[in-house]
Amino acid sequence: MSWYNPIGRNLGMVLTKFAAVVASLAIVSIVWEEYYAIPAELLSAAIVYVIGRVLMYAASEAEETSSAQAFASAAVVWLVVGLLSSLPFAFIAGTIALEPNFVATPPVNATMRALLSPSNALFEGFSGITGTGLSVTFRPSRCCSPGGIPTYTVPQTPSLSRITNYW
After folding, report:
1. Is the sign of the CA dihedral 7, 12, 15, 16 positive or negative?
2. Residue 138: pLDDT above 70?
3. Considering only CA atoms, which of 108, 105, 156, 163 is closest in space to residue 135?
4. Looking at residue 166, what is its pLDDT?
5. Neighbouring residues of 139: CB distance < 8 A, sequence distance ≥ 6
């Protein structure tokens, strides 16, 4: 048995749970009528889930987790979840930039253009996981438009994706 097997198993278990959180963002997309985000969220969730299941399968014969392995697991989980939490940002921004004909998308603004950059998407993912509160988004929301209706520079689905990372 490898010393790394319990770490892989632990990471796999966390990722399968995290995939459910990412997939649950599709509900928000339906509520806010941001249908263009659903494929990006489901693709992100599928990638996270498959990675988690592969790790669990590969480490299925793992022994009990020692204290050192538990600490290492926590560090690896933090790193990998931070990396994978960037997927919804990048995929949603990519969908908006593609402007598919079959679904309405918001206009590409400076924030969505910024999230097309892998480094900015990673920053958003890690910023949410670490709870720093920093963001590459430019004014995520404004109080109200002249008519009193809230206007958003960032669609609600990526905003909630970031908020769920704070959990």
Report:
1. negative
2. no
3. 163
4. 62
5. 153
- Interior/surface letters 52-78, b for 16+ CB within 10 angstroms, e for the rest: beebbeebeebeebeeebeebbeebbe
> What's the domain range around 82?
5-166
- The total number of structural domains in the chain stands at 1
Residues β-bridged to residue 100? none
Q: Which of 21-25, 89-93, 113-117, 142-146 has the lowest mean pLDDT?
A: 142-146
Question: Over 80: is that where the pLDDT of 167 sits?
Answer: no
CB 41 within 8 A of CB 92: yes
Give the DSSP letter string of 94-144. HHHHH--TTS--PPP-HHHHHHTSHHHHHHHHHHHHHT----S-S-SEES-
Distance from C-alpha of 34 to C-alpha of 49, rounded to nearest angstrom:
23
48 residue type, one letter: V
Q: What angle do CA 133, 21, 38 make, to 5 degrees?
A: 95
Give the 3-state secondary structure of residue 160: helix
> Which pLDDT belongs to residue 144?
45
Average pLDDT, the chain: 84
